[in-house]
Amino acid sequence: MLDLLLPRRCLVCGAGGTQLCDGCLERLPRIEPPLCERCGSPTAWPVARCRECAGRRLAFASARAAVVYDEAVRRIVGGWKERGLRRLADEAAALVAEALPHPGDVTVTFVPPDPARRLERGHHPAERLARALAGRWRLPCAPLLERSGSSRRQRGLSLAERRRNVSRAFRATGPPPRRVLLVDDVYTSGATVSAAASALRAAGARRIEVATFARAVRGPVLVLQQRDRTPI
Ligand SMILES: [Zn+2]
Ligand SMILES: [Zn+2]
């Protein structure tokens, strides 16, 4: 409803008429192989574990994302979160479905919202994305997780602080299915999805794969990708 009342402008370049124009959609920095098999970080060649995830306990089997979390993507995710632009969830789901193979016989679920933030915003991008993806892939989607306490906001915390902060943030709402695809909007340190996956495994799930719209990418790979997309 609100969508109809707001002037339509591209969240990235400001062009009128649409929330995300064709040119900006085309230029979003796709994440492409080779990747770290486990955490989905772009790497120089395929590896089982990369510098980013080596030695870390990750409760998910693998994580994959469609686009690099750069400035353009940050604006899109921001608009999606603050204004609940529904159509962007479908665009994001289309990009994820383009980038990832069909996950097979899984139940799709999502990282649950922080109750305080849900009230504040009224939108929950992870759930929107999960439902849109499940629709595309014709898979069941169910809320399988809840927040178990008031974890502090992640913004501004160091990686180590983030991991500590979220490690006990979730619990399963009931016995989960054996195979789960866990959806979130952005993968930053992996701590949030790992904690959520850990809660599902503690409740009996056997294998959790993670899919996100965007992923923070550190290091020289990002520079290479940005050079590729220099316009004209
Ligand atoms: Zn644009
Ligand atoms: Zn890795």
Write out key terms for the chains shown.
232 residues, alpha/beta, four-stranded parallel beta sheet, 9 helices, 6 strands, 15% strand, globular, binds zinc ion
Which parts are unreliable, with pLDDT below 50 for 5 consecutive residues or more?
222-232
Shape: globular
C-alpha-based Rg, rounded = 17 Å
Order of helices and strands: HHEHHEHHEHEEHEH
**Main β-sheet: number of strands, strand sense, barrel status?**
4 strands, parallel
Bound molecules: zinc ion
Number of distinct beta strands:
6
Approximately how much helix is present in the residues? 25-40%
Describe this protein's structure:
Strands 1-6-5-2 form a 4-stranded parallel beta sheet. It has a two-stranded antiparallel sheet with strand order 3-4. Helices cover 37% and strands 15% of the residues. Helix 4 crosses helix 6. By secondary structure, it is α/β, with parallel strands linked by helices. Helix 8 (191-202) links the parallel strand 5 (179-187) and strand 6. The longest helix is centred in the middle third of the chain and has 14 residues, at 86-99.
